Amino acid sequence: MGRATALTPESRGDTAALGGHIHEARAQSYGDSAAADLKILNVALGLEHEAIFAYTLAGKSGLLSQKAAEVGLEFQQSHEGHRDLLTKIIRDRGGRAVDPAEKYGWSVPLKDEKDVLVLAFQLEVGAARAYLSVVPKFNDRALSEGAARIMSDEVLHATVLRSVLGREVVPSFRLITT
Predict the structure, then answer these.
(1) What is the extent of the structural domain holding 29?
(2) pTM above the 0.90 mark?
(3) What does each C-alpha distance from 135 to 26, 32, 77, 89, 138 come to in angstroms?
(4) Residue 10 located in a structural domain
(5) Pairing with 147, which of 67, 78, 87, 130 sits 20 to 30 Å away (CA)?
(6) What residues have CB less than 8 Å from 97, skipping those under 6 apart?
(7) Domains in the chain: how many in total?
(8) What is the C-alpha separation between 41 and 35, in angstroms, rounded?
(9) Residue 155 maps to a domain
């Protein structure tokens, strides 16, 4: 990968679309709450696949300092743990776990470490907001608890990245804005 890369492939992972998929899952399956939960789990799994792809790409970019690469690897491993957990839950419930996309894209050029960190921050905030939106939507309350725990990891990642970017962490960082 070159040092100035624009990521704009056809398939795009979009954390903002999660809410729509969740509402669609709920609307289509009032009579089948287990199927609705599986659909929500698979959307969350898709977010984890996207995060793993992004951290892998960042690690191979040559744009990160050694410390940033180390932290990125830790965050990637966290997302791999989420992926593995979600995959197991989906399969244990008789569902089919979604596969990762062949590639994901973001319409931002990655020219330096700051660009990579900004993208990672945006993805982490998007994931935190997505998990926040699913906590009350699961029919199985144990899944709500699990989503809340994963959300706390996403918030931690976003907070670390926000700090590294030199942005005020508190009080301006909000998952919910009014």
Answers:
(1) 5-164
(2) no
(3) 13, 18, 23, 16, 6
(4) yes
(5) 67
(6) 42, 45, 86, 87, 90, 91
(7) 1
(8) 10
(9) yes
- Rg of the chain (C-alpha set): 16
| Alpha-carbon gap, residue 135 to 3, rounded angstroms | 39
Phi, psi of 6 (to 5 degrees): -100, 125
Compute the C-alpha angle 34/176/146, nearest 5°: 35
Give the C-alpha separation, 50 to 164, whole Å.
22
Domain containing residue 133: CATH number: 1.20.1260.10
In 93-135, where does DSSP find H-type helix? 113-134
Residue 127 has pLDDT above 80, yes or no: yes
Q: Is the pLDDT of residue 170 over 80?
A: no
- Determine how many CB atoms are found less than 10 A away from the CB of residue 17: 15
Predicted pLDDT of residue 15: 41
95 in a domain, yes or no? yes
Determine if the peptide bond prior to 136 is cis (ω within 30°): no
In this predicted model, what pLDDT tens digit does every residue of 81-116 receive, in sequence order? 999 999 999 999 999 999 999 988 887 788 999 999
Buried b (16+ CB within 10 A) or exposed e, 23-34: eebbeebeeeee
- The size of the chain, in residues, is 178
Q: Examine residue 94 and state whether it is found in any structural domain, yes or no.
A: yes
